[in-house]
Amino acid sequence: MSAIAELDWRGSGDGAAGPLVIRNAHALDPASGLDRVSDIVIRDGRVAEIAEGGAAAAPAGAEEIDASGLHAFPAFFDPHVHLRSPGQEHKEDIETGTRAAAAGGYCGIVAMANTDPVVDDPAHVLALRERAQSEASVPTGFVATVTLGMRGEELTEMSAIREAGAVGFSDDGLPIVSARVMRRALQYQHLVGGNILLHEEDPELSGDGVMNEGPVSAALGLSGVPAVSESVMIARDGALCLYEDARAHVQHLSARVSVEAVAAAKAAGAKLTAELTPHHLVLTDEEVRSLDSRFKMNPPLRTEDDRQALIEALRSGVVDCIGTDHAPHAIDEKDVPFEVAMMGVTGLETAFAVLYTELVLPGVLDLGLIVERMGAGARLFDLDQPSLAVDAAANVALVDLEHDWEGGADGWESRSDNSCFHGRRLKSRPVITIVGGEVAFRRRSFAMKVAAG
Ligand SMILES: [Zn+2]
Ligand SMILES: [Zn+2]
Question: For the chain, what percentages of helix, strand and coil (3-state, to nearest 5) are there?
């Protein structure tokens, strides 16, 4: 296990910014059993002390944050982000994407490799890592593609790519169609470590589908992607993982049959993990009746029955973590008829608020469970999951659960505006994000003071 702050970013992660005291926050960390109003003292990048609210002595020169009325959570980690750099900076870049992450309460992210050109060799990985060291607001891990040019034919130099510091591999955006290529990739994963992140669909079954296949697609006369397109590939790759004793991770699960495929692979002993997006947890294909391209993504929004299965999978642990699949697109790529619009939605700045508003407040899922699953993505890459335990790296999200806002009304830190929660009333918002003891984001309206003495 290593520390998130050791990934590439602008900060140092060793607390060079000086000590901090978070005063009177409601600290909640299910893993360490913490659930009370507390002072959190941060020194040298670590949690030095957790005291009863108002009781901690501030180290000399410490910056004090009056967090009365706020919650302090272990900050979040997103294993699935598209930063669009290199080549598509009109959608997003390292600076805007990681600022969006920090604003969403994230202390770390992993960036996908389906850029232009794709990240498919060690030199590309090294170049991105170097840029992140001057541009990234939060620690950023990079994956390289599994196959050269994402063509699904020849493997990249997986060993050299790992030596260059990639945290794993993914052809996300496309599935790895050939079982032979997939098997070889898993053999290499077993040797070189990291993780293989899988976008699961069978293109023969997906065809030219633009939404979920079902009554809604039939009513709209749009071609559909059946849920089984996803689950057959998960079943195949679960079996291959088991056979090769390799590790892989299923991205953006969307359907009940896919949950069943992951559960079966896990039960058989495969080292397979899975993630869910906030949009698949709270929306269904009924939204597509509006023909608003903000509801177009891959995999598509499914049915209410699928959504219920996803919620239950998150609760039971069949699904390990939340990933946003933050996928920025420019206005002219989305503001076109539904059939031809680009697939994908942004997510970093709304993830927590959406889950809190739509699942926690109505009593569907516990707040502690959401917080845990939003940090668990770190473990996919052998990174320490954010925690508020004494001596843990100080990765903290301070969140105002009472904050009432409308998605997009005051703009986004992201360069793109393709949020499927644009215009929606949301409750709760991160106000300060601390990474490795350093303040990585502070909402503009929020003031702090420096302790005397
Ligand atoms: Zn994908
Ligand atoms: Zn993706």
Answer: 35, 25, 40
DSSP state of 242: H
Ligand 2 centroid to residue 172 C-alpha, Å: 5
Q: Architecture of domain 75-381 in CATH? A: Alpha-Beta Barrel (3.20)
Distance 321 CA to ligand 2 centre (A): 15
* pTM, 2 dp: 0.97
| Domain limits, the chain | 12-73+392-452, 75-381
Tell me the per-residue pLDDT of 341-400, one tens digit each, with 9 for 90 and over: 999 999 999 999 999 999 999 999 999 999 999 999 999 999 999 999 999 999 999 999
Which member of 237, 325, 384, 400 is catalytic? 325
Closest CA to 204 of 166, 177, 239, 181: 177
Q: Which residue has the tokens 């076109």?
A: 336
- CATH superfamily of the 12-73+392-452 domain: Urease, subunit C, domain 1 (2.30.40.10)
Report the separation in Å between the CA atom of 433 and the middle of ligand 1, taken as the mean of its atom positions: 27
Concerning whether 325 is annotated as a catalytic residue, the answer is: yes
Closest-approaching ligand to the CA atom of 113: 2
Helices (H), 113-211: 122-135, 158-163, 179-192, 203-206
**Whether the bond into 30 is cis, omega within 30 of 0:** no
Ligand nearest to the CA of 112: 2
How far apart are the CA of 384 and the centre of ligand 2, in A? 23
DSSP letter for 10, please.
Answer: S
